[in-house]
Design brief:
Length: about 725
């Protein structure tokens, strides 16, 4: 991503403050510290501090960076940090220090906060809301304010919404000092899991991996009908899974793919829409799923491995839907692929930059095979990534000098483990000198895997460098060094800010829901309404799943409404707290309920007019943002029925113990259903549909939702008949033009 597109991305996300000189250095230092601190914690654990202190530090530093980077409103074009934002940042620091120092005070432990406790609690809530407004936007703040208002006016609410818990002291105490408010599940997931994967993605991007993904995808799909668009879908899916931001992903890949799509014949707003859909849907794709997978672990209590296993097939089906949408679009307008001479050699690409795939394989090994902790998996992957990025180019340029340097690095790494004890003793002594309790006798710890991974990384770097020389493949021009590492660290901190403040605000919502008892009331209201609608239906139309159908439809509208204008992670947290319990109380498996709200939360992120990825891609495509957003929603809507499919047919989530042929049949019918629905939306299969064919295609797609052998066979036969009719009519048109 060039500087121009970085600037555009920052402006879209509300940060058009371009700091210079000392201000830039200060913000860089804080950003690098935040990333380095999380990298340390991921590898070695907490340095003698409690987990609550870690969460407070995570949020406090995040708030400081927000007020340093994000102006009070867009369009100010500031080159420095104004005095009032410096003051606010210092106030955030003071609030964080106070809460850290007093988290175990008698007043807090007894549940009787002092006036000073309440003052800093209110201060923290206001800081979180203002930071959220600057970074995420007004929608989430408005939702938070509505919930806060409900908390205090609960006694005036009608019916089941009424409650009598609206006490000011209780509100501040629960939200800021207990573990079910700001420092609850969302911020815990953000600090413990999400940040380290944002860092992994930022470092991977800083090595040029995004361009490599695009080139590989073009090599695989570029020559086919609508090839650049299909390559965009695949490349954006790969980057979208790793990236925590659909907007950043859209800019990263769209910079390369949108001009190619326009060149082969896609209209500008269509090219931008394809990129929007592909970038956003990466949030479904394991192993990282943007960040949702790790937050889902905290909400559901289901092991990470089971979550990504269940999410894999639906995610692939979502991309099948987008790919067929692209294929039908290209068929309609006669858009061909790229010439083979325009595409890079696959072998050349793998020899040149294939080493950037190895850290992802390492990540998958530790997550799926070795089953080590999520944090350690990311840490080990980052080590391998950095070793490869640093040494491949240097081995290529100067084999002897780099080999000597590599031996020195390995020797230092081996010897460092023997220096840990005296270093820890020195750090522990600093506690008495500085009158702090930050360091401990185990501040720096050792992991034997570090040496092994560094040896493997250096060995692989040597193999790739020799292969490039042997086969006379040009190496990439990028020489990865300290400046690129700092850039990756800074990018990670910046990208994490929206998630940090959104999770903190989501904690306020969860605190209100928990303290007021709204969760059970909302669930009973939704279930009651679904039951009322079911009773109003004629008996002949009522089935065992009718009430669940109504609940699912209501859930869809709630997801699309609550998710408007929110980043995907914030949307999922809000929906997981408010909407998912409705489905679980109706007997839906907890994982299915959370995947259901995640899918429609992502679709909400694509819904115009509040659609940041569309504004980003529209700027690259030179198209209207609203029109681009509509196209993005259109392409994503291929997966509109998918959550209904896996809710009523959990087989594709691998949650049921069935025979292999039943699994194959379930995946086959779900795939055909996606194709049928995509063809209905595009009004095209082999040729343009007649009106009755299009209606039949919709009926076919709907029949696949109800998991039943009879309806599945009817749907397959119907779609086969449509295909044969379309094929015969198209042949007749060719023979008799």
């Amino acid at each position: 991503m060039d500087d121009g597109h970085k600037k555009m991305l920052n402006e879209l996300e509300g940060s058009d403050r371009e700091l210079r000189h000392g201000w830039a250095v200060a913000v860089l230092a804080i950003s690098v510290f935040l990333s380095a601190f999380h990298l340390y914690v991921a590898g070695f654990g907490l340095p003698g501090i409690g987990s609550k202190t870690f969460l407070i530090l995570h949020l406090t530093i995040g708030l400081i960076l927000v007020f340093c980077m994000f102006p009070i409103k867009k369009g100010m074009r500031q080159k420095t940090i104004p005095w009032y934002d410096v003051v606010i940042a210092l106030v955030a620091l003071a609030a964080g220090i106070y809460i850290i120092q007093n988290q175990t005070a008698p007043s807090i432990m007894s549940g009787r906060p002092t006036d000073m406790d309440l003052f800093f609690g209110v201060l923290l809530i206001l800081l979180v809301l203002e930071a959220t407004r600057r970074v995420v936007g007004k929608p989430l703040v408005i939702i938070a304010l509505v919930f806060i208002t409900y908390f205090f006016l609960g006694e005036f609410m009608p019916g089941q919404l009424q409650h009598s818990r609206g006490d000011f002291e209780r509100f501040v105490y629960e939200i800021t000092y207990r573990n079910n408010g700001i420092f609850g599940t969302p911020i815990y997931a953000s600090a413990q899991f999400v940040f380290i994967f944002i860092l992994f993605g930022a470092i991977l991007e800083s090595t040029g991996a995004g361009k490599m993904f695009i080139d590989l995808a073009l090599r695989m799909f570029g020559k086919y009908k609508g090839g650049p668009a299909k390559a965009s879908v695949v490349a954006s899916g790969l980057m979208g899974s790793i990236s925590g931001s659909s907007t950043a992903n859209a800019v990263t890949t769209g910079t390369f793919t949108i001009p190619l799509m326009k060149r082969v014949g896609f209209k500008p707003h269509v090219a931008g829409g394809v990129e929007v859909a592909a970038s956003s849907s990466g949030q479904f794709l394991p192993p990282i799923m943007g960040a949702a997978a790790f937050i889902m672990v905290e909400f559901t209590g289901i092991p990470y491995y089971e979550i990504i296993q269940s999410a894999l097939i639906p995610a692939l089906l979502a991309y099948v839907g987008i790919l067929f949408m692209v294929h039908f679009e290209a068929s309609k307008h006669g858009i061909h692929g790229m010439k083979k001479s325009e595409l890079a050699s696959g072998r050349k690409l793998l020899i040149q930059q294939g080493y950037l795939l190895i850290p992802i394989l390492v990540l998958l090994y530790y997550l799926v095979v070795a089953r080590v902790s999520v944090n350690n998996s990311a840490f080990f992957s980052i080590i391998v990534l950095l070793v490869l990025a640093v040494f491949v180019q240097r081995f290529r340029n100067n084999m002897t000098r780099t080999a000597i340097g590599a031996c020195g690095v390995i020797l230092f790494t081996v010897l460092f483990q023997f220096l840990i004890a005296p270093i820890n003793q020195g750090l522990d002594a600093l506690n008495g000198i500085l009158n702090i309790s930050f360091f401990s006798a185990e501040t720096i710890r050792w992991k034997p895997e570090i040496v092994v991974l560094m040896l493997i990384g250096i060995g692989l770097a040597l193999v790739f460098a020799l292969s490039q020389k042997q086969l006379k493949v040009e190496s990439t021009t990028m020489r990865y060094g300290f400046s690129q590492l700092l850039s990756g660290f800074e990018t990670a901190s910046r990208n994490a800010l929206s998630i940090i403040v959104a999770c903190a605000t989501a904690g306020i919502l969860i605190g209100v829901i928990t303290t007021s008892g709204l969760s059970t009331k909302f669930t009973s209201i939704a279930i009651g309404f679904s039951e009322t609608l079911t009773n109003a239906m004629p008996d002949v139309l009522v089935t065992d799943n009718t009430q669940l159908y109504f609940a699912l439809i209501l859930t869809v509208f709630a997801c699309l409404l609550l998710g408007l204008g929110l980043p995907t992670t914030a949307t999922y947290v809000v929906l997981a707290a408010i909407v998912a319990p409705v489905l679980t109380d109706m007997g839906v498996h907890v994982l299915i309920a959370h995947l259901f709200v995640l899918y429609y939360g992502v679709l909400a992120d694509d819904t115009p007019p509040i659609n940041l990825p569309a504004y980003a891609t529209a700027g690259i495509a030179k198209a209207g943002p609203v029109r681009t957003g509509i196209q993005g929603f259109k392409y994503d809507s291929a997966a509109l029925l998918l959550p209904f499919v896996f809710t009523l047919n959990p087989t594709i989530l691998m949650l049921t113990d069935v025979a292999w042929h039943q699994m194959v049949w379930a995946i086959f019918t779900a795939t055909i259903g996606m194709v049928a629905f995509a063809s209905f939306i595009q009004n095209w299969l082999i040729r343009k549909y007649h009106w009755y064919e299009r209606i039949l295609a919709l009926i076919t797609a709907l029949l696949f939702i109800q998991h039943n052998l009879v309806t599945d066979i009817i749907a397959v036969v119907t779609l086969t008949i449509i295909f044969i009719l379309q094929f015969l009519l198209s042949r007749r048109k060719i023979q008799n033009p």
